[in-house]
Amino acid sequence: MPTWKYYLLPTSLPQAFQYIQSHGPSCLIVSGGTDLLLEIQQEHRAPVDALIDVTRIPELNAIEVRDERLFIGAAVPLNQVSGSLLVQQHGQALAESTGQIGGPQVRAVGTLGGNVGHALPAGDGAISLLALDAWAEVASAAGSRRIALAQLYKGPGVSALEAGKEIIVGFDIPLQQVGQGSAFSRVMRPQGVALPIINMAAWLEVRDDHITEARLAVGPAGPVPKRAGDIETFIQGKTLNDALLTEAKQVLHTCVQFRSSPLRATSGYRDHLAEVLLKRVLSTSWHRALQSNRGRRQE
Question: In the listed set 125, 142, 174, which residue is the last one of a domain according to the structure?
Fold first, then answer.
């Protein structure tokens, strides 16, 4: 029994919404399809009348600077995101995370929009975007709106987008300035394509050897991707050193609660890994921010 009747390839947003209107609730938006098509074929989703593939819409395939922010289209394949010089310059955490999702074949067709739209609490792209203070542009037949990334999530696998009505056009992050740096890291099972046991991303701004602003995102540490606000506040105004990292690890355990999962690991093991990743992403972001400051002084 076929799981869909029509596979449609609009080349513009208006055309996509025409297709959506024609097929009503019995349609789904697809980009890379690395998760969605499997779910349909394995009957984890009900059959639909139409799949609307948005990967040929130009607005969804851009990586460019717009109004002092870097825009990354939702349909850009993950390997192009990780390989983009603009992404590497302004969002190194995002370049690192998208370079680790799945295997080479998945990254060749999977997209950042799909990674976020699937609404998993430990999506690698989402965790790095969260640390980079990303916003999403969402379009519907009535127009477009910008929404903070965290507001796209309702629960595990449950997106805040209106199914069959809204399309993620892309994401934008602030351009990286002198004295800023970011990093991403993850631990996963040996198979190499499984979801992470734990992942983490950090962004720091450093002035005069002190952290003036910090963002840290951790997953999966709840039903939706989240930032560790207590740690961000704790390290602000301080110099990153071994003593601070030791104290930050203790703060981490008070603000991020892991649970045991048969698909991932025990809570105790993930507590241990969280300390390892915290040191790694904070130290790497710190050194990248310092290097940026040194580069400014040498000019």
Answer: 174
